């Protein structure tokens, strides 16, 4: 079994020192960012900065999804966000789900110059992931059994050997883990598969999305997501947009303990949501 590489050791350090396996998903959807931030130069960065201030204590890592940043201002916002998260000592995992022929993958892998880890799509096979895998200090989370309703369409297909495709992906990812830098993405909405995969590849840390807004199984996520104590359970909308109801309440003139500066309402709510998730997940950690 390869030792964890530098990324996974840093992640372990963060998990142990802050006692958290929460990945805070920074899916800075411009359509949901509080109105008072929309006139800022880079609203997504302004939003993320406030979210990071409120949540970093509870974050083992931040996981921006590239889909929310793929335009000129988006990349600038992402760069600022990554630098700020690093300034708080929190690793950043870019959920980019890349994978292409080698020459193109080599360019995609340059994304890893800016972040600590990335998600990758194994559909095109080993050579399409090699440029990511060959970066010894970074982490690569390979999509295996995803959390969406359609995941079974391809991932559950039975191969001639009788195993489902997602099991073959896990076995391949285990082979590709020559540098101790590989993890798997396995959704919390598939608790049976989480358990089965943990048995199949005991040494690979999982990134487990799908708790929170997708209603996945938080207990199974923790029980099976961690390898030697290392792994991540992600919530994005459930944390960063936790304040939406309260903002609506304040905006409509409602009086509550949360009424006050609207600029801070959403950030405070995100901090509380991150803490709640941290505490809940910690109940299930050994
Ligand atoms: O199987 C997968 C792989 C990736 N994701 C991503 O994680 C977050 C989940 O967001 P929530 O708001 O917590 O539902 C999002 O970026 C997805 O693209 C996933 O959900 N499932």
UniProtKB/TrEMBL annotation:
<dbReference type="InterPro" id="IPR011060">
    <property type="entry name" value="RibuloseP-bd_barrel"/>
</dbReference>
<dbReference type="InterPro" id="IPR013785">
    <property type="entry name" value="Aldolase_TIM"/>
</dbReference>
<dbReference type="InterPro" id="IPR018089">
    <property type="entry name" value="OMPdecase_AS"/>
</dbReference>
<keyword id="KW-0665">Pyrimidine biosynthesis</keyword>
<feature type="domain" description="Orotidine 5'-phosphate decarboxylase">
    <location>
        <begin position="21"/>
        <end position="252"/>
    </location>
</feature>
<dbReference type="InterPro" id="IPR001754">
    <property type="entry name" value="OMPdeCOase_dom"/>
</dbReference>
<dbReference type="GO" id="GO:0044205">
    <property type="term" value="P:'de novo' UMP biosynthetic process"/>
</dbReference>
<protein>
    <recommendedName>
        <fullName>Orotidine 5'-phosphate decarboxylase</fullName>
        <ecNumber>4.1.1.23</ecNumber>
    </recommendedName>
</protein>
<keyword id="KW-0210">Decarboxylase</keyword>
<keyword id="KW-0456">Lyase</keyword>
<dbReference type="Pfam" id="PF00215">
    <property type="entry name" value="OMPdecase"/>
</dbReference>
<comment type="pathway">
    <text>Pyrimidine metabolism; UMP biosynthesis via de novo pathway; UMP from orotate: step 2/2.</text>
</comment>
<dbReference type="GO" id="GO:0004590">
    <property type="term" value="F:orotidine-5'-phosphate decarboxylase activity"/>
</dbReference>
<comment type="similarity">
    <text>Belongs to the OMP decarboxylase family. Type 2 subfamily.</text>
</comment>
<dbReference type="InterPro" id="IPR011995">
    <property type="entry name" value="OMPdecase_type-2"/>
</dbReference>
<feature type="active site" description="Proton donor">
    <location>
        <position position="97"/>
    </location>
</feature>
<feature type="region of interest" description="Disordered">
    <location>
        <begin position="244"/>
        <end position="286"/>
    </location>
</feature>
């Amino acid at each position: 079994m390869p030792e964890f590489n530098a990324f996974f050791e840093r992640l372990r350090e963060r998990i142990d020192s802050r006692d958290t396996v929460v990945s805070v998903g920074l899916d800075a959807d411009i359509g949901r960012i509080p109105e008072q931030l929309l006139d800022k130069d880079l609203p997504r960065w302004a939003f993320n900065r406030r979210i990071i201030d409120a949540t970093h204590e509870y974050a083992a890592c931040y996981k921006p999804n590239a889909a929310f940043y793929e335009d000129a201002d988006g990349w600038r916002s992402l760069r600022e966000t990554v630098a700020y998260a690093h300034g708080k000592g929190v690793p950043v995992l870019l959920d980019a789900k890349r994978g292409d022929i080698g020459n193109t993958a080599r360019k995609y892998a340059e994304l890893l110059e800016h972040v600590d880890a990335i998600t990758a799509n194994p559909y095109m096979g080993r050579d399409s992931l090699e440029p990511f895998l060959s970066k010894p200090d970074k982490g690569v989370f390979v999509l295996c059994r995803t959390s969406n309703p359609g995941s079974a369409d391809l991932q559950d297909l039975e191969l001639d050997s009788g195993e489902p495709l997602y099991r073959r992906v896990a076995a391949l990812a285990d082979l590709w883990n020559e540098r101790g830098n590989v993890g798997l993405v396995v959704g919390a909405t598939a608790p049976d598969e989480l358990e089965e995969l943990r048995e199949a590849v005991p040494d690979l840390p999982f990134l487990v999305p799908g708790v929170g807004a997708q209603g996945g199984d938080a207990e199974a996520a923790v029980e099976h997501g961690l390898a030697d104590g290392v792994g991540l359970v992600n919530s994005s909308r459930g944390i960063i947009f936790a304040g939406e109801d309260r903002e609506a309440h304040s905006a409509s003139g409602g009086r509550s303990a949360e009424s006050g500066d609207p600029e801070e309402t959403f950030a405070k709510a995100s901090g509380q949501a991150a803490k709640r998730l941290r505490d809940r997940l910690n109940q299930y950690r050994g």
